[in-house]
Design brief:
By secondary structure, this protein is of the alpha/beta class. It contains six helices and six strands. Strands 3-2-4-1-5-6 form a six-stranded mixed sheet, sandwiched between helices. Helix 1 (about 30-45) crosses helix 2 and helix 4 crosses helix 5. The radius of gyration is 17 Å and the shape is globular. The chain starts with a strand and ends in a 12-residue tail after the last helix.
């Protein structure tokens, strides 16, 4: 069956600035490299000897993460498809702003609980990102053989949108979907009989242990409801 491994990029220098970062290009930190190795080790045994396709955002932090994952898997020669379709949501005037400044200047912009209604000032809206995700799925996922394993490395908001889209959930359900931790794994399988994707793992960051983001439990796990219980 078709199996998707959706992975958020590892920690980048943008993540440690305490600012809102979307399309600005940053490379991985030393910790980010270690996180990439950890997720690579996690999925290596599962995918050993199996056919793999690899896709990533065209931003450096996503490609670096994917390259390190493939190296740890002994799959350095795997062809990588980089695409702007998987780039992070362009947050426009929010770029480089502190989270507190964003709350004061743009209180109507809620990246957590109202993502489905988000319109970034001078940037993208939720529907823009959803449209990108749909184009990506139609272009790269629709024709894959059932035995294929696909690794996709992207970004926090884009992966939430892509996951919600692939599961064919209503737009408002994305507001129950927590932020993806750096190198967290969301695994989906395509059920040919039902013609739907099913969740195997959602935002699994158990491999990180001491490498997880400090304070993630306070800011990343914001959802009031259980996303999976709504399926």
């Amino acid at each position: 069956m078709l199996r998707l491994y959706l992975i958020r990029h590892a920690e980048s220098y943008g993540n440690i600035k305490g600012k809102i970062i979307s399309t600005t290009d940053f490379e991985l930190t030393e910790k980010g490299m270690a996180q990439s190795q950890r997720i690579g080790q996690k999925i290596s045994a599962e995918l050993k000897g199996k056919p793999i396709s690899a896709y990533c955002s065209s931003l450096a932090r996503a490609k670096q993460t994917l390259l390190e994952i493939l190296r740890c898997m002994g799959q350095e020669n795997t062809e990588i498809t980089e695409t702007d379709l998987l780039k992070e949501m362009n947050l426009g005037l929010l770029e480089g702003m502190s989270w507190e400044d964003r709350r004061q200047k743009y209180p109507e912009v809620d990246l957590d609980k109202r993502l489905s209604l988000l319109m970034a000032p001078c940037g993208e809206c939720y529907q823009d990102v959803k449209n990108r995700c749909q184009i990506f799925a139609e272009k790269y996922l629709a024709e894959k053989d059932n035995g294929q394993n696909i690794i996709i490395v992207s970004h926090g908001i884009t992966l939430r949108v892509l996951t919600n889209f692939l599961l064919n959930r209503p737009d408002e359900d994305i507001n129950l979907l927590n932020w993806m931790e750096n190198t967290s794994l969301t695994e989906l399988i395509w059920e040919k009989r039902s013609q739907t994707y099913q969740v195997v793992r959602l935002n699994d960051y158990s491999h990180l242990k001491e490498l997880k983001t400090i304070g993630y439990e306070n800011w990343g796990l914001f959802a009031d409801g259980d996303y999976l219980s709504q399926i």
